[in-house]
Design a protein that fits this description.
Order of helices and strands: HEHEHEHEHEH
Strand order of the largest sheet: 1-5-4-2-3
Structural class: alpha/beta
Shape: globular
Number of strands: 5
Largest sheet: 5 strands, parallel
């Protein structure tokens, strides 16, 4: 997918502040113990297949609902989307809200699928 320059600039700015992990890190358990995997894609994308064990909090509502679902701001959270752009933006927002242990999975669901990993449909 070709993204607009303004969007890419926004993502690159967010990525300068967030920590990222790879799909291999997530699959191999090389993320903080007890990490919650959060899919920030749209509901239809989540329904079409997602990482096993992931919960759904789309980018459109994550800032609104995160404190209710995860009031502990040190909880280890791994966010992913389709390719790693929306998750970086969401991770940046959560950090600004005081969350201190947030990772964005670079490559997102596309990378997960390209690696041949199992997904829940």
């Amino acid at each position: 997918m070709k993204h607009a320059p303004g969007f890419l600039a926004l993502v690159n700015d967010a990525k300068s502040r967030v920590k990222e992990c790879t799909v291999e890190d997530v699959k191999g358990g090389r993320v903080p113990p007890g990490s919650v995997i959060i899919d920030v894609r749209e509901e239809s994308e989540f329904a079409g297949g997602h990482v096993p064990g992931a919960i759904h909090l789309s980018k459109g509502i994550i800032e609104r609902d995160i404190e209710t679902q995860f009031p502990n701001k040190t909880a280890p959270l791994v966010l992913y989307c389709g390719g790693g752009f929306r998750s970086a933006l969401a991770a940046d927002s959560l950090q600004r809200m005081g969350y201190t242990n947030v990772l964005s999975m670079d490559g997102g669901m596309r990378g997960w699928r390209e690696a041949g990993y199992t997904e829940v449909v």
